[in-house]
Amino acid sequence: MAEADAPAHSQHVYRTRALGSIAELVTDAGALFAASEMLEEELERIDLVASRFRSDSELSRLNAAAGSEVVVSHDLFEAIDVALAMAEATDGLVDPTVGAAMNLLGYDRDFADVLLGLDGELPPERAVPGWRSVSVDRGRRAVRLPADTSLDLGATAKALAADRAAATIHSRLGCGVLVSLGGDASAAGPAPVGGFDIGIADTCTSPVPAEAIAISSGGLASSGVGVRHWRLGSHEVHHIVDPATGLSAAPCWRTVSAAAATCVQANAASTAAIVLGERAVDWLEDHGLPARLVRLDGTVVYTAGWPIPGPALSAPELSSR
Amino acid sequence: MAPLRQPGPAQQRRAASLRRDGALNRLSSITGSIAVATIAAVAALGIYVAKALPGHHAGASTGATTSTVPAGNTGQGAGASSSSSSLNPPSNPPTAASSPPPVTSGST
């Protein structure tokens, strides 16, 4: 059920449930209603196009046709194009061909059904087919997946929806806007003085964020292993798959939040950081990406200009690079 | 006093020809004016529609919000295209928040 709040400095919030999480919109009061309708349209479209859990989604039909060439809609082609671009940008650390590996780990249905735990054994280590195995013909919007390959666009499609919704709202209404889909946030247009304030927490439903930052452009995203994890037989697994092994990435960070030029890029960076483990700090610094990384024991590491909080908001232990 | 002479057939044809040419010139002038006015109206309508279409917003935002925005802070930074195959930092780095945040970013 949607609701609207009125936070500080004349920015208003529209909040609703979508994509298995919470969708939020922050903008001027006068633009809130029209903007919320545009957001709802985008949410409906991305779910119908890119959901791995809806049998009637276009992505499900594409996955079912693996081995054959399929002409897809503009929306799905864009989602695949963006996923492949992020795979290239991260040297394959964030790879959309993890779908089959995710299914073998049991995450082939709504998370509420997975959360209870699953019977079965951990599958053997096996690299995923890899993003380079996906053939695309831009002119005809045709896509061919190798046989037995399944795409999972979850890492990038939600962030793309946030970028698109924010850009559309700003373009049509001329207002500044922040769109946050499950904590993946995108800002477009004129930001309020000081930027759009965003709490940073282990989970996006946390009532008390550990820190609060402000962004005035681009995107912010968080990835973590603290929510979407479950038992598979006697093993604990989570939803961020290491493409090199086809298994859940070795746990190192509980949560990584990163800022980038777009929400898609921020999401790719935070997901890649989870896969990289300890090497993520240098990797983020090399890319100049501001990030906050929380170890499993709660220790926090900051990179590339992420604002380190003052004493009032500080975590138990802090270190910065 | 000389009798009034009736114009001859040749003069009558010439007079008729002059009247016809004059009428045609006036008609041509009116048609040209209508054509120019039509082109101008279509051009004006085209500009109006182009500004109204999504993605063609060319004007600045309303003064109330525009006045609060620092220069160079009205959009996404370099490399902001969603399909760009690179990772770029935001054009403005994040800063510490000044008020309680209305939204939270975390694992989902």
Structural class of chain A: alpha+beta
- Beta-strand fraction estimate of chain A: 25-35%
**Shape of chain B from CA axes?**
rod-shaped
Query: What is the strand tally of chain A?
Result: 19
What is the H level of CATH, i.e. the homologous superfamily of chain A?
A: ApbE-like domains
**General form of chain A:** globular
Strand arrangement across the biggest beta sheet of chain A? 1-2-3-7-8-11-16-17-18-19
The profile of the biggest β sheet of chain A is: 10 strands, mixed
Number of domains of chain A: 1
Beta strands of chain B, count: 2
Helix content of chain A: 25-40%
CATH class assignment of chain A = Alpha Beta
Low-confidence stretches of chain A: 312-321
Termini Cα gap of chain B: 116 Å
**Element order of chain A: H for helix, E for strand:** EEEHHEHHHEEHEEEEEEEEEEHHEEE
Count of DSSP helices of chain A?
8
Rg of chain B is: 35 Å
Structure description:
The complex is a heterodimer of chains A (321) and B (108). Chain A has 321 residues and is of the alpha+beta class. Chain A has one domain: T-fold. Chain A is built from 8 helices and 19 strands. Chain A has helices spanning 32-50, 58-64, 74-89, 99-104, 111-114, 154-173, 263-276, 280-287, and strands spanning 3-5, 11-18, 21-28, 69-71, 135-137, 142-144, 177-181, 184-188, 196-203, 211-215, 218-224, 229-232, 235-238, 241-242, 247-248, 253-260, 291-295, 300-303, 318-320. A 10-stranded mixed β-sheet of chain A has the order 1-2-3-7-8-11-16-17-18-19, covered by helices on one side. A 3-stranded antiparallel β-sheet of chain A has the order 4-6-5, with no helix packed on it. Chain A has a two-stranded antiparallel sheet with strand order 9-10. In chain A, α7 (263-276) packs antiparallel against α8 (280-287). Chain A is globular and about 50 Å long. Chain A starts with a strand and ends with a strand. Chain B is mainly alpha-helical and 108 residues long. Chain B has a domain at 10-55. Chain B is rod-shaped. Chain B starts with 8 loop residues before the first helix and ends with a strand. The interface between A and B is large, with 94 and 48 residues. β9 of chain A pairs parallel with β2 of chain B.
